[in-house]
Write a structure and sequence with these properties.
Blueprint (H helix, E strand, L loop, with lengths): L1 H7 L2 E4 L2 E4 L5 E6 L43 H8 L46 H19 L1 H11 E6 L2 H8 L6 H6 L2 H21 L4 E5 L8 H6 L9 H24 L4 E5 L1 H10 L14 E2 L15 E2 L16 H13 L5 E2 L3 H6 L1
Parallel strand pairs: 3-4, 4-5, 5-6
Antiparallel strand pairs: 1-2, 6-9, 7-8
Helix pairs in contact: 2-11, 3-4, 3-7, 7-9
């Protein structure tokens, strides 16, 4: 036991700095703008959040925008904090994401990204899931150089959580797009499209497994028909959501649950947890006063229509006074206050919202 304890506390001298490689653990984060920590700042993309008032409540930056698509921390930031991670996982494309910094984990997420490479074309550039996994392969080689192959493998398998929050854009900015997606919708039924997503996601998750990822949390797609953007363009009432996006999300989510059960059986040593974001957000939207919110339909930062749901958040859009009282920060994304609640249920909740175990249990294995 003493030898194991010594190994766990072993400090590697990396480029002149002492790094506790098995300290507080690491989060490797994949996905879209719900968890992007600033990767899109480094690419020519129309999907950006590096302008005020985004980040107005992000303490680490002194209230300045970082490229996060919310007023404060993302759900991934908060989960990392709750699990004792020493610092936020830095964006892969940031120039200082090298050396010892990668032992906190790395964030590969990109606003506009999807499971399919075609998703998000409207934004010109984004880092889709295939490329995000390619980028992790680069990090994987850096970890070998940093720790040596055996310890890198142990670090990843024991102390790293791989979180995947993707799929929303495959519907919002691909299949359900009014104009750009007509080719997709004519050629593919909803069933065919969902099956296509699952086929590609299976491949992406399996690739991560072959690179020594073992502890996964995969979020399902939230109730897309309830976001201010969808409610605005479809002109539904305050307590209503748009049916088709929610039906498609539910259809995908059912297949995702089956996929993760299958992977848990097929990939030795892997633990795939399903974060039931759909039901969590639905609970928040339906019973928002119980959680201290004043509205679950109007964006805090945005413009256009009944719910300020057309124009994305930026320096010229209107900004609400009570940011902690809005479930939605902008036409698409939850506020930090909502993210805090969602994270609590995913880290410490029961099997209704996170299964087969919560993240605290997964992390402790």
């Amino acid at each position: 036991m003493a030898a194991v304890a010594a190994a766990l506390c072993a400090a590697a001298v990396v480029r002149g700095e002492v790094v506790d490689e098995f300290g507080a653990g690491a989060s490797f984060i994949f996905g879209d703008s719900l968890v992007d920590a600033g990767n899109n700042n480094y690419i020519p993309s129309l999907s950006k959040a590096n302008m005020t008032p985004n980040g107005i409540d992000f303490t680490a930056s002194g209230g300045m925008p970082t490229g996060r698509f919310t007023n404060g921390r993302t759900i991934a930031d908060i989960i990392g904090e709750m699990l004792g991670q020493a610092d936020y996982s830095p964006p892969f494309l940031a120039p200082n994401t090298t050396g010892g910094a990668i032992l906190n984990g790395v964030n590969y997420a990109s606003g506009g990204a999807g499971i399919l490479n075609a998703t998000g074309k409207i934004f010109v550039n984004r880092i889709g899931m295939d490329l995000q996994v390619d980028y992790f392969n680069i990090t994987r080689k850096q970890l070998d150089d940093l720790l040596g192959p055996d310890r890198a493998k142990e670090f990843l398998r024991r102390k790293a959580i791989f979180s995947v929050t993707v799929g929303s854009n495959d519907f919002l900015n691909n299949y359900l797009m009014p104009v750009l997606s007509t080719g997709t919708r004519i050629s593919e039924s909803p069933d065919g499209f969902v099956n296509d997503l699952i086929f590609h996601l299976r491949d992406q998750l399996t690739r991560l497994y072959t690179l020594d990822a073992r502890k996964f949390v995969v979020a399902n797609v939230g109730p897309l028909g309830c976001i201010p953007y969808q409610k605005t363009i479809n002109r539904v009432g305050e307590d209503e959501c748009v049916k088709l996006p929610n039906q498609m999300a539910a259809q995908y989510n059912g297949k995702l649950r089956e996929l993760l059960i299958e992977l848990n059986g097929d990939l030795p040593g892997a633990r795939f947890c399903l974060a039931n974001v759909y039901d969590l957000v639905m609970e928040l939207i339906t019973n928002y006063p119980n959680y201290g919110f004043e509205t679950a339909s109007v964006a805090c930062c945005g413009n256009g229509g009944s719910y300020d749901g057309l124009v994305p958040c930026g320096p010229t859009t209107s900004l609400c006074d009570a940011r902690t009282k809005h479930v939605f920060w902008d036409p698409y994304h939850p506020s930090e206050a909502a993210n805090v609640l969602l994270a609590k249920y995913i880290v410490d909740g029961d099997s209704k919202y996170i299964s087969p175990m919560n993240l605290r249990k997964l992390f402790s294995l």
